Structure prediction request, 170 residues.
Amino acid sequence: MGRAGPASADVTSAARAPRSEGRVPKVFLRRAIGALLYERCSPLELGAGVAVGTIVGMTPFYGLHLCLAVALAALLRVNMAGAALATQISNPLFAPVLVLASVRVGTLLGVGAAAAPIGPLGGGPGFLRAWLVGGVILGAGAGLVLGAAAGGIRALFLSRSRAAGAPGRP
Prediction:
């Protein structure tokens, strides 16, 4: 004869709990995009934040991209969320191409060209200088394009929300 004690209550409540394992990335992405769209900022502030994040994301400071981008965005008074998300341009899918292109641009400009290569990709201070200079230059170009796109999307969102009569939006 079974007694319904605390252990059986835990089992039944666990069986009834909704599972949200597959929804976590979708909910996170929706909240991140919503934060960018609904945050009180101008299209120029969002575009500048994305540009700052893109430039920082193409530098060799892996592990510090997020901190550097948010600090620079706060210093420049631009959108910090846009800067933080834009640093993800250096994700594992794009990073090898971005690193090689940045080093190539830096080397073409004469930065780090005299450094002897170490390993298959090179290395040492000359390699890092070429990566830094090339990354900033490529990041500025990509940041200009991505920042303009983000600012344009923000302006479009603002005009649509104003036309719909959404109160409280800038």
Q: What stands out?
A: The chain has a mean pLDDT of 80. The radius of gyration is 23 Å. The chain has seven helices and no strands.
